[in-house]
Predict the 3D structure of the following.
Amino acid sequence: MLAAIFGALIVAVILWEAFETVVLPRRVARRFRLTRLVYRSTWFLWKAVARGFRKSKSRETFLSFYGPLSLPILFAVWAALIIVGFGLLYYSGSTEDSTHPTLETCIYLSGTTMFTLGLGDVIPHTWRERFLAVIESGLGFGFLALILSYLPVIYQAFSRREVNIVLLDARAGSPPTAAELLRRHSGSEGAEPLKRLLHDWEHSSADMLESHVSYPAVSYFRSQHTNESWLAALAAILDTCSLLLSYVENTSLRQARLTFAMCRHTVVDLAQLFGEAPPAHSSERLPPQDFERLRATLTEAGFVLRNDQAARDRLTQLRAMYEPYLQALSAYLYMEVPPWILATEITDNWRTSAWGRVSGLTMTGPGEPDDHAD
């Protein structure tokens, strides 16, 4: 009876876990989950190994393997536990004159039935064993169909996210920063494109929130370039909106408010999804010297900036609403959060290749390549 109860419990738990992970399109608030335990334990070990890499490029390459590999690892754990669960059910009905009286033989029978091998060296005899064999073989087909349907959804969500991140390359630099994004959208010609960009990222962050909460595995997938990530993109957009709402005189305040609210909602909910509370003492992302350089860069680009205590207080208040959650996600996912302004100029990814950088390229406007450049 104990073997039967324990086996049925294992099968029920795994089936419910698979339903919540693959089929249920919402965040699961239950604290203990096997899927969460698998990801937590394997990601902890993966990060520990990654810390041993000295070169950041090698470390990012190693970390990029975790997202795709975590899926077959999770499926293998599910399949192994289902096999063990049905093996215990077979074992609970075994007798001394049975052809499979040992637990090892029952688990072997369960494995061949689960994967529908049909070897025939161990076969069920009683009606109960035959009933379990039919149920398990059906689950084997269903489990395969579940995997085949789950993978395209994951990669479609990843692809949609990466398209928006790559589009930021020429608009906000590599990595994206608020200073570069605003500088490349300065002047009268940049106001409308900036408004459209914020509008697009309001929808992009909403899509990111929906897909990453429904399928948290997507969060572990890294971007193609080591200096880009979905977390860095959200940080740059949030920083930009904070500056627009506090310091910059412009006509995009309403869209900046809407984009800030949606991006902040995404960051906070994902931090809650991974159980990462914001740190009590956050590191300073905008020290005074960087803020002065930021002001000088934006003023030179043509932006009219406020210079009063109300603007400083407003920026501090807005930063406190999202920066602690950014840093919590950064520590957990091992993704760097970019600064507000880079210490040195870095060549954009679109201007580089395996054979070197693009030479002789001039800029006709903020972030626009000259078609007549050599």
